[in-house]
Amino acid sequence: MVVKQKVLLLGATGETGASILKGLQESGNFDIEVLVRPASKNKPSVQKIQEQGIKIWCIDINESSDLMSALSGVDVLISAIGPHGLLEQKKLLQAAKSAGVKRIVPCAFITVAPPRGAMLLRDEKEEVYNDIKFLGIPYTIIDVGYWYQISFPSLPSGKVDYAMIVPNSTIHGDGTAPNILTDLRDVGRFVARIIYDDRTLNKYVYTYGDILSENEINRIAEELSGEKVEPTPMSNEQIEDSVAQAKAALSQNPQDPMKRTVLYISQYKHSKYVRKDNSPAYADYLGYLDARSLYPEFTPLSFREFFVEVLAGKMKKVYSS
Amino acid sequence: MVVKQKVLLLGATGETGASILKGLQESGNFDIEVLVRPASKNKPSVQKIQEQGIKIWCIDINESSDLMSALSGVDVLISAIGPHGLLEQKKLLQAAKSAGVKRIVPCAFITVAPPRGAMLLRDEKEEVYNDIKFLGIPYTIIDVGYWYQISFPSLPSGKVDYAMIVPNSTIHGDGTAPNILTDLRDVGRFVARIIYDDRTLNKYVYTYGDILSENEINRIAEELSGEKVEPTPMSNEQIEDSVAQAKAALSQNPQDPMKRTVLYISQYKHSKYVRKDNSPAYADYLGYLDARSLYPEFTPLSFREFFVEVLAGKMKKVYSS
């Protein structure tokens, strides 16, 4: 009899967390419990999880005794906490260590980027990774690049706009920077494999379905749609200006979530298209393992398959529920 | 014909730098040049290097054009800069990148410790490592643990005190923490191998001659000397107090080199003996390669061999010239 690993998941109602929850359920290798904060208790998304028979721990993470109960017997703690709550994870670490958690997967799940100095979002994650290493807790960092779901262009017909947060067809720089891309729905499928694998212990891993530049993405979109993408160019200088402006705005009010989000987005663009960080070569330099090499038997969704679904009107807009 | 690698070494007159210079010379695989700052130009130790026919670049590292000349054609840039000048290395990095240096070995050469939060000395090194990763320069981090030369006890006869900076026979905590130890004279021999090896590119590597606890060191010292070590105990609480005091003193005058040194020493003790960081297990957790596994054909000096020399009056006190 195979003993299942007990996983405690934080952030299960977010886009990444929901994909992880589904991936873990599909795999059948895990007993899954979910940690939610008291403020989220009555959210419909939390109740939906409960209706699936999944145990919900509704806990104030400032209460260490409650936390210890939730963490007792947990093999893997996964955090998919939102970008504005990253430093909150620090409160979990000592408890995770005391409870003997065998692996912690802190909230990474972004593009490949330098540990410090390129993206505020990444800098805050680094603080958490450093605390984990300070405590010596076994860990895995999983980055997924950028999602297909936010990496495709608007078409002149407007037929794919239903699936876009803000319809646009911007090309950044010369459009040639290769990018690590994963279908959001595959994030959980990769996570289920990565956390069930001793080779990934105390390692950084990146996942991808495709590595594509914006020019390549547009060519696929044109081929599949029969339409001509009409790109709006954004130069490296414009991207740099947008970062500078977002930093200046945030400095006026450092905790404003909207201003932080604007900075995150501009720094993503800068890191992906000006610095060209989100590439297999830079991931390799930084010491990441490649999840495709680790799991050759798993074929993730390709961007082409994804865009066929978008064109067929079958995709769901992210951040829409 | 084997083409030699061109190495530029900064800090060649310090203890670590001198060992590296000697190790590189012994190996025969390198064309060595040395970078010194104008203030050091007339030091006898610099003149001694010059007398060996080694090219000396006497350069203000704030002058980027001079720096570019020194870095032109350099394969490996090694920095063994002193502990108070670590952040000065940041000025070298952009130039090293522009010059196409194929590997940078920033000043590491200390104990294995967490990237942040345990030792100010390590925290400042981390800043430099992060800048290197930001720029994407190929690198190798080499840590050597603590030197034999500062890891042996005073004996009742006083016969080994000549080789000690401050004679003492303190035992920290229960004396059982295992420590990564390297003979200072082997540092350069390891470095010569590590930088000539593609397997160590973009990796962390630790070296050791022996892994020993203070209790084990004392047993060897007693066996070889026939004397009985009379240890002075220092409890974990006393070590923690010494760190707190050193921090408080430094906060009064953050740039005072003496106060920084006192903090470095107390944090070394805390990291080595209370946290027990400087161990193969923690190095492995942090992703270090083990230099002994990489170079099984090289037998470094053992602590036992070292202490025989100390007893014979043949050792030189470190930091004495």
Automatic annotation (TrEMBL), chains A, B:
NmrA-like domain span: 4-250
Pfam families in the cross-refs: NmrA
Alphabetized GO MF terms: oxidoreductase activity
Entry superkingdom: Eukaryota
Keyword entries, A-Z: NADP, Oxidoreductase
Protein name: NmrA-like domain-containing protein
Species, as recorded: Penicillium vulpinum
